[in-house]
Amino acid sequence: MKTLFTMISMALLVSCSGRVGKYNNKLSMPVAPEIELINNGNVKFDDFFLDKTMRLDYYHSGNSRADHFAMDEVVSDGIWFGSRTRLIDNLSLGLYFFEVADKESRVILYSKGFSSVFGEWQTTGDAKDNWGTFSESLRFPWPKKPVTVALSRRDSMNRFERVWTIEIDPSSRQVNPADIIHTNRVDIIAENGPADEKADIVILGDGYSRKEMEKFRSDAARLAGYLLETEPFRSRRGDFNIRAIETPAETTGITKPHHKVFKRTPLSVHYSAFDSERYALTHDNKTIRNIASQVPYDLMVIMINERTYGGGGIYNQYLTVSADNKYTRYIITHEMGHHIAALADEYYTSAVSYDLPAVTVEPWEPNVTAYLDKSNLKWKDLVESTTPLPTPWNKEAFEKEDFAVQKTRDSLRKAMVPEKIMEDLFDKQLSEEDALFASEKYNGKTGLFEGADYDAKGMYRSQTDCIMFTRHMTFCKVCRAAIERAMDQMMK
């Protein structure tokens, strides 16, 4: 009998400082045995892989100080979705990173960085007192021969350190190569070429009743259009394939705990993730993966049939967006920044659910910096010689206006006012920001502007404004470049 898996290591203990990717190593850290893997660059796809996707489902458990991994199952996830030539991920993004290596030769065949819901939850206050278990998946080309899958996460210096290793024999009776027989309707929004040569987006919907499928189709086309109207997506709209899969519900809308609204929906998306009323996530990983496997996809958008402002975006996992808010265009584009390129939030005046310690190492996200290495700024090639570092801006005036808006916002949410009142508040906020930024000496210049990644002090962004900072519909030059690199990694 052939053995399906050899579990080389299943657990890691860490001491988490409270922010994604920043750790204090005060504990001893048992890690996976260091199996030396050989990186020879991209291999020839057809020599090692079949044209289908293997999905390794596993459970990620722990609290703020511990990670444990346990295999669930290995299944087929449809045809192969990604590039057949760019198999090695050179972006070095995400809280986690996995590598697939030929078991016999140890040559790396495929690798990819990602983040996860667990990784975010682990930085919340809830994780200090409770244990949690989350379903997660690794997707990679279906190997022809046995492989070693090695999972790493960032250590106290933000370097990837091995935490779990497992061997998979694709010919084992316990590996399920059967594809799901899908019955959901697929709507083609844009089709510009083979999946391995394009960036493929799948759009799912939650909270759309059976009578609202026409609305779902219209919303999917509208939101796809919103995304492709913003640079750099606009210039590269021919590089996308976009498909929507219909998942009708028995009722309209989704769960909103802060509003005392509770429902059971096909994808189990809910507001109030990590007790943030605007944060919408689902923990039902296997359900969304099974549904999405009907089509090839690099990126997953989950539309929620709600007007209430909300959404979320996790690198190489999925994004969510409320379909009917006045700021839906902003939400989907902002969250795609997280999802496609691991961009950090640049704002720092809004309340968040994470415990935020002092930053002691350079963040790994491409668009923020702690500026600890004064001679090696991430985006130094974009800075003009006449721009001072750090770069002055009217920070005090901005904070005075923005903190006042956040205070009003909190009171309006507690009063559960109609959504239009909240949208009007955001309109007023944008108008005030427009006036303030117009007077900035270095507006539009790339520099080093203090205030980013939820920190008013000691963290910096590259421009006065960006869609990752406010609701203005423009990515800064640094964010645009990061998105371009991420798109190139997905394509031939």
Overall description:
The structure is a single chain. With 492 residues, the chain is α+β, with helices and mostly antiparallel strands. The chain folds into three domains: 5-168, Peptidase M64, N-terminal domain (Immunoglobulin-like, Sandwich); 186-341, 3-Layer(aba) Sandwich (Collagenase (Catalytic Domain)), CATH 3.40.390.10; 380-472 and 482-489, no CATH class. It is built from nine helices and 19 strands. It has helices spanning 45-48, 117-121, 126-129, 213-228, 285-292, 328-341, 395-415, 419-438, 477-490, and strands spanning 5-9, 11-13, 16-19, 22-23, 49-63, 66-76, 96-102, 108-114, 132-143, 147-154, 160-168, 186-190, 199-206, 240-245, 299-304, 311-314, 318-322, 449-452, 455-461. The strands form five sheets. A six-stranded mixed beta sheet has the order 12-14-13-15-17-16, with helices on both faces. It has a five-stranded antiparallel beta sheet with strand order 1-11-10-7-8, with no helix packed on it. A four-stranded antiparallel beta sheet has the order 2-6-5-9. Helix 4 (213-228) links the parallel strand 13 (199-206) and strand 14. Helix 7 packs antiparallel against helix 8 (419-438). It is globular and about 65 Å long. The chain starts with a strand and ends with a helix. The relative contact order is 0.13.
Which features characterize this protein?
3 domains; 22% helix; 492 residues; alpha+beta; 26% strand; globular; Immunoglobulin-like; Collagenase (Catalytic Domain)
